[in-house]
Amino acid sequence: MTTIDDVARAAGVSVSTVSYALSGKRPISAATRTRIERAVQELDYRPHAGARALASARTNVLALMAPLRVDVNVGVIMQFVTGVVTRAQYFQHDVLLLTQDDHAGVERVAAGSMVDAVIMMDVEADDPRLAILRRQRQPAVLIGLPRDATGLSCVDLDFEAAARTAVAHLTGLGHRAIALLGSPQTVLDRHTTYAARLVHGFDDETSRRGLNAVFEPTESSHAGAVLALDRAFARLPRLSALVVHNEAALPGVLASLRERGLRVPQDVSVVAVCPQDVAVGQPQQLTAVDIPAVRIGGVAVEMAMGRLERDDPAETRLISPVLTARESTGPAPA
Amino acid sequence: MTTIDDVARAAGVSVSTVSYALSGKRPISAATRTRIERAVQELDYRPHAGARALASARTNVLALMAPLRVDVNVGVIMQFVTGVVTRAQYFQHDVLLLTQDDHAGVERVAAGSMVDAVIMMDVEADDPRLAILRRQRQPAVLIGLPRDATGLSCVDLDFEAAARTAVAHLTGLGHRAIALLGSPQTVLDRHTTYAARLVHGFDDETSRRGLNAVFEPTESSHAGAVLALDRAFARLPRLSALVVHNEAALPGVLASLRERGLRVPQDVSVVAVCPQDVAVGQPQQLTAVDIPAVRIGGVAVEMAMGRLERDDPAETRLISPVLTARESTGPAPA
DNA sequence: CTCGATCGTCGAAGCGCTTCGACAAGGTAG
DNA sequence: CTACCTTGTCGAAGCGCTTCGACGATCGAG
């Protein structure tokens, strides 16, 4: 292994000079800098991460706690992860992957000074992990919105507004009876807040507008989609529009509609709430409120870096939803 | 931050005694050990990862290079990742996530002594990253099978045998005209070897058995599936069986068959090559050769640890395929 | 008994890096 | 010309941990 000592010797300067030349924290003459850089090149010098962490109290690593359950939304999770990793790269940080249920993980990793900050996905309303997070000296950013976010930064799509946007779009097309096919019951029970926030926005907006509306939790499978749709039609026989917030159920919902002899959008309009690529990857291009997962992941990293480098205060950022009209929505049938 | 010094003082022993008590590398009397453990508890002591890495040349971190492209098989990738993270946890290791195309990543992370070993997914036949891997002092394990694996450990499903198994199953049911709907052309072009190995096994086995067989690359979308199926029928009008090796195209293939008025399995039998949960998550339970992604990820970690701790020699492990018959295959129509 | 292991503990020497304080050599303002 | 600042460099003191060698105490074998 080549060390900073080797470089210093090769360049004919002291160790500290090499360090300063590399970090730029003190002025170094052009000539010296050049000699040092050449030495670094020639010796293929790479600073020892541990040594650096020990001396500088900075690791250039971010912890990302992600729900690695294989059940739902894997694609969406992946997009968040991609957003985080990509943006972290920009800030010269690597990403340490922790699983949701490795409760001790955050503590081990933060208390052991392995990471500079923590990003946590899939936050629940009263998440027990928040207490751990608050106890650490590293900043934390949540993707999601707990009941009490004191001292922690949060970022997420404004799911409440997302529901309102979808409802507004459908109302504008004349629909008066709308069903929301949402997250699985288990997700709701876990009090993952995005699911609840969407439902709340939906309920609120539809009742404000005096619409006929029902909400059905939906299991993430073909069969679950069929059942949820059955229940929705049972409760609201004249429904002409659907808001679907469940990526995995989407294909089942569309197939089931076809099976009932209902055409989209002539008989039933469908608005999805999902990442864009999911919306356009269906047999039919879906009108959708985008979940900008990659972007949200990126913003999470930026917020973490802001707190780290500029000591930005903790804040909550809700990203405004954008609806893109495609082929799955049209005027309500007469 | 509480350090090992604090613990030593609290327990009334020297620093080195604490270290030995905690690592178990030298005998320590029960009494002393108890006092130390109590002190650790009370002070909530957690060793500084950087310091430990510096002194011991071990980081307890594994690098995992995964293809974070959002395009294909996200679910499958996630399963590999889950397998790796879970098994790593067992070995007290955390996982540093690197993206495929962060070429400098491995080098930075390995040369900088941030990790004890590297696991690399989605290896191509002549992967340029292998050279980098060979240059590092940390062991590397590939998930996949490059042309030349000298010095590197590999693990993967035996895709060649997987194809043979699928073909054997179908032949046993009397099918004589079989199409393989495989990976997208782009994956083939990248020379990701699992795709090619499956095709090779398929070609070889079908010709050995004197069957009518065609192979069609398949784009990972509904539309791609429809097109591939069209081409297959054009080339082999009397085909009665399909082997599908493309998770994302699976729903499209099934839908398209139905649209053609073909029943599964009465008119056409389908064998999928995919993870089990994908096979049983379809509208119809599919007969499938399982891709045991979680397990493979776990084995990769075990191999890495073996090399690290027992200096096991590099080896290549191909996992034997297992076919589970479900509802999508039946006797060939008369 | 005596000698050599073994056990239990300690002190000190690093591991490779960052950073603080010092200092010489110029530059600039008054 | 003096006083002071800036620039460029160096030496040394850690950062918190592991590990080597040493040493007294115990113990069993001869």
TrEMBL record, chains A, B:
<dbReference type="InterPro" id="IPR028082">
    <property type="entry name" value="Peripla_BP_I"/>
</dbReference>
<dbReference type="InterPro" id="IPR046335">
    <property type="entry name" value="LacI/GalR-like_sensor"/>
</dbReference>
<dbReference type="GO" id="GO:0003700">
    <property type="term" value="F:DNA-binding transcription factor activity"/>
</dbReference>
<keyword id="KW-0804">Transcription</keyword>
<dbReference type="Pfam" id="PF13377">
    <property type="entry name" value="Peripla_BP_3"/>
</dbReference>
<keyword id="KW-0238">DNA-binding</keyword>
<dbReference type="GO" id="GO:0000976">
    <property type="term" value="F:transcription cis-regulatory region binding"/>
</dbReference>
<feature type="domain" description="HTH lacI-type">
    <location>
        <begin position="2"/>
        <end position="56"/>
    </location>
</feature>
<protein>
    <submittedName>
        <fullName>LacI family transcriptional regulator</fullName>
    </submittedName>
</protein>
<dbReference type="InterPro" id="IPR010982">
    <property type="entry name" value="Lambda_DNA-bd_dom_sf"/>
</dbReference>
<dbReference type="InterPro" id="IPR000843">
    <property type="entry name" value="HTH_LacI"/>
</dbReference>
<dbReference type="Pfam" id="PF00356">
    <property type="entry name" value="LacI"/>
</dbReference>
<keyword id="KW-0805">Transcription regulation</keyword>
